Amino acid sequence: MEGSESEKVFDSLNLNPKHFVNEALNIVDELVDDAFDFFHREAANLLKTEGTNRSEDLKEGVAQIKNMVQLTLDKRLSLWEKYCLHQCFKVPQGFSLPKADGPSGDTSFDINAVENPELDEKLDFLRNKISEVGKESAELNRELQALERQSMLSGHSAASLAEALELYQQLAVDEKFEELVRTASDFQTKVENLATRMVENSEHRRAKRIRTSNGEMFRLSNDGGLLSATLEELQEFGDDIKSLRD
């Protein structure tokens, strides 16, 4: 850049791109130094090397790491410096300084000298693409919002369906429980009736047996009925009566 037209233009405007780049590089160096000083202090506190033989080893290790980082950083900053001086601080072709005796409002830039139809065509193409992408993005956003609303409605429908199914299942359980209670009640009634019939049949058979075995005692004869029975027959008849009561 030295001795070029760009340098003359910046010098006339009291600007120095090289000075700007050097200031930026100095700031980076200061930041790196502060960062590794902080790193060394924290490492010493964590490893407790202060006042020990390991203090020098830690210092040398931090210095080696710093040199490795600084070497890589210097290479990248060198490329950045060249880019700034040859691209960022390069004035367009056709740029001219204002004349000392010219009017203050006179332009110092020849627009026609830097016209580039090919570049304008590319810019128009990019503008059109950006416009199309913007329209597609808006359309996609609308579709996304519609899908979100549909998903929300589907979620509400699924929740309502699950609630209805749960209510139906609860009602079905209640109906089955009531049916089970009715069945148990009917079964209990049938068991009680069966037990009653069994008792009645048992008593009927026992009474019939007594009447069969002691038929003559139940018949009243003209001779006096039970008065004509013997003592053993009366005792047996009394035992049968007690068994019927039990």
From TrEMBL:
Would the keyword Cell division turn up in this protein's UniProt record? yes
The protein's predominant localisation is nucleus
Where does it localize? Answer: Chromosome, Centromere, Kinetochore
Tell me which UniProt keywords the record has, alphabetically.
Cell cycle, Cell division, Centromere, Chromosome, Coiled coil, Kinetochore, Mitosis
List where this protein forms a coiled coil.
Answer: 123-150
State the Gene Ontology BP annotations.
cell division; kinetochore assembly; mitotic sister chromatid segregation
Top-rank taxon, per record: Eukaryota
One Gene Ontology cellular component annotation held by this UniProt entry: MIS12/MIND type complex
Q: Which InterPro entries match?
A: Centromere_Mis12 (IPR008685)
Q: Family membership, please give it.
A: Belongs to the mis12 family.
Put simply, this protein is called: Protein mis12-like protein
Q: Which organism is it from?
A: Nicotiana attenuata
